[in-house]
Amino acid sequence: MKRSIIIRMAALCVGVLALSCVKVQEPLPAGSEILAPDGEAISFSAVLEQVGTRTSLDGQMQVLWNENDKIRVFTASHPNGLDYTLTGGAGTQTGVFTGSDPGSGPYYAVYPATAGTSLEGTSLHVTVPSTQTYAEGSFGAGANLAAAKGEVLENLRFRNLEGTLSLKFSGSKTLRLVRVFVPVGETLNGTAVIGGWDGDAPVLTFDAGQTGVSFAQMTLSCGSAGVPLSSQEKGFSIVLPIGALANGFFVEAVDTEGNAIVRHSPADATPAIVRSEIRPMPVLAYAAKYKDAFLTAEGAGAFSKATATASGSLEALCRYVEGQSQYAWMNVPGDSGSRYLRLEDWTDGFALAFTMPYSLVPGRDCKVSLESMGNTGVASQSNVSMRVVKQFGERVWLCDSQTGNGYVTLMINEEE
Prior knowledge:
single chain; 416 residues; mainly beta; nine-stranded mixed sheet
């Protein structure tokens, strides 16, 4: 004997897509049914919540289901959740999901299915990944975290838990990835709990202790072939937690040749991310300036060929090595104060000392005196103008445009 089961619920989709970019299919007609043998599976329809915007985006934007989308439903009897796969309605606001019968409610659900890990009481535990995938005119599949709760599997409404940052680039290169990172102490990825089910939308709260540099960044991967730029702006959308970017942020765009640009948006020029909204940024003209290897260099030290215009690969001239090197510092805080940092390594036979302003502004030049002793590979310089490329965590990246050398220094602020 066979039965037919149809359950209606509202859910959130995979991406924001312009109508001109997708093939829109007709929604399922009212009363459509999927038949399944007793005890094997159920199927239910899902109507999508739209993503709002306060921007002047061209064209009508819609949120649509994509093929192979999955959601995960949790109950007291299934605390680890059951997956339901999209089996109809791809490319529309109405989809059909199929999976095992979860039994009695209440029901807690999350999109994408891979985000959900467990249900403990009424708290839904999830993981927000540190990497998203580029999608033309949209955010990548599975990037837009959403959750729902219902006493019955009927009219279950998914709500967005995050917002979207819209970056735009123009140029002639092909981008391999885009990175966004914020001051350490603000979390963009990691493990979290979804609660607050009785409000307008559930609330995503990151677990405490995830404050290191790895949790303070989000990477948008552009695939092995990359995304080619042109004179016309190209959009890159990254989904981020509510309230993110309020203290300013950095963005790095890396091309397929291993070069990159860095841009800093200060706090007074950066609106915080708002739930279910798209935050646009001005168009950035991509003209590679630094080696990506310099921007991702570990530790501290001096490097040659740090600029994109220098031929050859980045070379480490001298580098601070944990357990092998030592450092000393003396700070004089204040607007007219200074920072002094000395790196030494007796094994490799070098000492390198920096004197620079106490306050550093990303994207601007500052005067640096460099004292070189031993096997450093660089010459001593007094009051040379160096660009503050970026500041992240307890390190700052400086670049000497005259020599093409780059320096990564420690930012020691208090006694250890």
